[in-house]
User: What shape does this take?
Amino acid sequence: MAEKGSSGLVVFIVFGNAIILLCGLALFAETIWATTDPYYVYPVLGVTGKDDVFAGGWIGIFCGFSFFLLGTYGIMAAVKGSRTMLTVYLVLMMIVYIFESASCITSFTHRDYMVNSNVIKKQMLQYYSANDTAQGREITFFWNRLMLERSCCGVDGPVDWVSYTSVFRQSHTESEAPWPFWCCARDSNFQILNEAACRVGLPPYINDQGCFDHIGHAIDSYTWGISWFGFAILMWTMLVMFATMYHYFTM
Amino acid sequence: MGGFQYLLLFAWLLQKNLAVAVVPLLASSNICKFNPTQTTIALEKPYCFYVSPNAVTVYLYVVMNNATNLTLDQTNTLTSTEGGSKAPYVAAMFSNPNCMDTPTISQIYDFSQVQTTLNKYVVRVGNDENCFNVNPCNKALKSNVAYRFIYVFYNSTPAIVFQSEWSPPIYTKQGKDSGSIDTWPGRRSGGMIVLTSILSVLTFFVLAGLVAAIITSIMAPSTNTETRRHETRTSHTVPQKTDEVAEYATASSISERYSSNLQA
Assistant: This one.
């Protein structure tokens, strides 16, 4: 029958599925890394309601593990040369393929929304120190921690706090605190170096760098992992699926 | 003769300009990087504006740019002049800074001296939030309003011994409404366009291929040897499984039978 002529194709399908299997495991691990959020930026995305970078991550976990299982199953199907098994393989792989595409596109689209717009600045001004709501507390805690840990201030620097009206401004006058005290440079015991110098905006005593670099870097890292790695796997999966279909036609 | 007069005039102008062309200035942007803000304006203290061995007190008067009455009165307060909209009010008073003792950069960056150096160098208008009709009252300024400043030097009598010129109008910052920040992401990134378009097209192709494969697998076997396979279906299933290796060559016929099962 046809399997004599297409044995090279079977070898390719087995090899291709072995790659898919390994990449599936890697994607699984990588998306778990992204969803655990080691850079701690989830509150920023969560409060806007546009946290679908992480939704993409969760779909990626499912797809990674599915790729692992289907890769294994595909090798079995190809070796066995069973038409039924190959049908099931193709149908299931198609489903996972569509889900993984969705994961890539969702993640990237929402990364654009967060990084290419002023939504983070607007959210900071409207929620920081609004301690009467759960979102306000979460955002306040997030920014306090971020500004302390990364020695930065606001999204684009202290100028954010004096250029816009904000919830923070309603509770603190500029005479007292033109920007949150977490913008002030601190010593190793987290004591403010000099409050008066911080208040007038004297650079060594105030963190005059914005925090956007950190947030943007974190979101980008997650998105590159979820979207571009997923995209690469899908490119390869497409080749293997076409090969399998050809094999299926000719067997 | 005429030349001598011109020389005298020139010398007088020179002296006059040097002595009087002193105005309150914004503090150096190296020191006050974000100045002015919405309600504060940081000014440099008047170093070497007026040098005198006697004790001299400097009054800083603040007035809104649109005020017509510029009469300097020591008793004017922020409340009595309605925030400087009617007449200049006294915002701060301090002793005349010592011309011999100007602050240096190294003092600013020295952690132990920064506090005193800032007090010596900067006067921050709008610095005091809690002044209840005391003089001087240095309460927060209004945002997006032009203010003018003047340093006036009083001796112990007190009488005016010297005054600087009025500063040009300095605007406080207007706080833009944070609700008006546009959150539209604008242009999509190239990566997003590439990823979405390629994945959409490929998904379509893969799906089309799958549909084609399934349709052919349904159509193809139904034409030829369907009847024979239906007969052998039940009786030969078990023995065929035992000698799997031998049957590998005819594996396609087994799977064809399964697929026709699906159809039946």
Remarks:
- Residues 10 and 16 of chain B are 10 Å apart (CA to CA).
- DSSP finds eight helices and seven strands in chain B.
- Residues 222-251, 259-264 of chain B have pLDDT under 50 and may be disordered.
